[in-house]
Amino acid sequence: MTLSRPFLVAGKPAGILLFSAAAVASGLCVLPEGVDWRAMTGAGMLAGIGFTMSLFVAHLAFAPGNTDQAVIAVLASSALAGTAGLLYLRYYGSRGYGHSEGE
Question: What is the pTM (predicted TM-score) of this model?
């Protein structure tokens, strides 16, 4: 179970960034005004806290009573993703992101 934790934490941010970059590069869309790739990275990291589907799949994949490790791994991954996203955005937010010169 512990091998799945890095994939739960890194998979969503990587997917969000890669598909967003592909959409922007293809001209399908543009990043909103005031949003840069650092903000997208932070949003991707925070998306890692979504664990509902992981829990659902774990309950389908394992026999009743054998899902405890999966649930613990998913909850730990969600906590790690939320903490990493918070720290990342706090670090870059303290650099004046999103504030204009006149404010």
Answer: 0.67
